[in-house]
Amino acid sequence: GENVEQHPSTLSVQEGDSAVIKCTYSDSASNYFPWYKQELGKRPQLIIDIRSNVGEKKDQRIAVTLNKTAKHFSLHITETQPEDSAVYFCAAFRTASKLTFGTGTRLQVTL
Amino acid sequence: DAMVIQNPRYQVTQFGKPVTLSCSQTLNHNVMYWYQQKSSQAPKLLFHYYDKDFNNEADTPDNFQSRRPNTSFCFLDIRSPGLGDAAMYLCATSRHSGTGGYGYTFGSGTRLTVV
């Protein structure tokens, strides 16, 4: 089955700096890669996603890149703000299969 | 608004006493999932329904069962809750077709406490 590795497990950045979270996946047939933000005690919220026919996608301060050859995708957050502090999960999905989550990254944005 | 609704938001149950968590959706998604999430960990898939077809994960204990009486509702039954079953239980839905899946949406979750 699919295996998704996520790094780093914790990340501390200063407000205004950029944050990058990286994930690798094992199943070359995976074709959908969402990123979720989860605040304490709340549900995971989809913040951005990318499909395998696209190499990069951007939404304001958030961007995701996908390298299918390397089976690697990354989340980039620019101009970080304190409200970006949360746990971020990457995930990978293959058609007619299930969503497999990474282990999560706790992002702390300090003033 | 179309959404995924979980009830109750908080559930306290006694050790060994059967408990049922519910999930309903107005998105008309054909796939419904149940995840267990323990503190600071990734959500762990217990099982999912693809339309009426039930798909159990290999490592899901027999203590966990599920029912999907119709497209909109899905239930998680824990037959004999143990202390280790205390967690947040998340319901999620998605829409799948032959070309792929989209629209993953999570409910607010039910936090289960076992006493």
Low-confidence segments of chain B, given as residue ranges, are: none
Overall, the morphology of chain B is globular
**Cα end-to-end separation of chain B:** 35 Å
**Main sheet: strands, sense, barrel of chain A:** 6 strands, mixed
Largest interface: A-B, 22 and 25 residues
Mean pLDDT of chain B: 92
Shape, per Cα inertia axes of chain A: globular
Please compute the radius of gyration of chain B using only Cα atoms.
Answer: 14 Å
- DSSP helix fraction of chain A: under 10%
Task: Give an overview of the whole structure.
The complex is a heterodimer of chains A (111) and B (115). With 111 residues, chain A is mainly beta. Helices cover 0% and strands 57% of the residues of chain A. Chain A is built from no helices and 11 strands. In chain A, the strands form 2 sheets. In chain A, strands 2, 4, 5, 9, 10 and 11 form a 6-stranded mixed beta sheet that branches. In chain A, strands 1-3-8-7-6 form a 5-stranded antiparallel beta sheet, with no helix packed on it. Chain A is globular and about 40 Å long. The relative contact order of chain A is 0.35. Chain B has strands at 4-7, 10-13, 19-25, 31-37, 44-50, 53-56, 64-67, 73-78, 87-97, 100-106, 110-114. The mean pLDDT of chain B is 92. In chain B, a hairpin with a 2-residue loop joins strand 5 and strand 6 (53-56). Chain B is globular, with a radius of gyration of 14 Å. Chain B is mostly beta strands and 115 residues long. Helix content of chain B is 0%, strand content 57%. The chains are: A mainly beta (111), B mainly beta (115). At the A-B interface, strand 5 and strand 9 of A face strand 5, strand 9 and strand 10 of B.
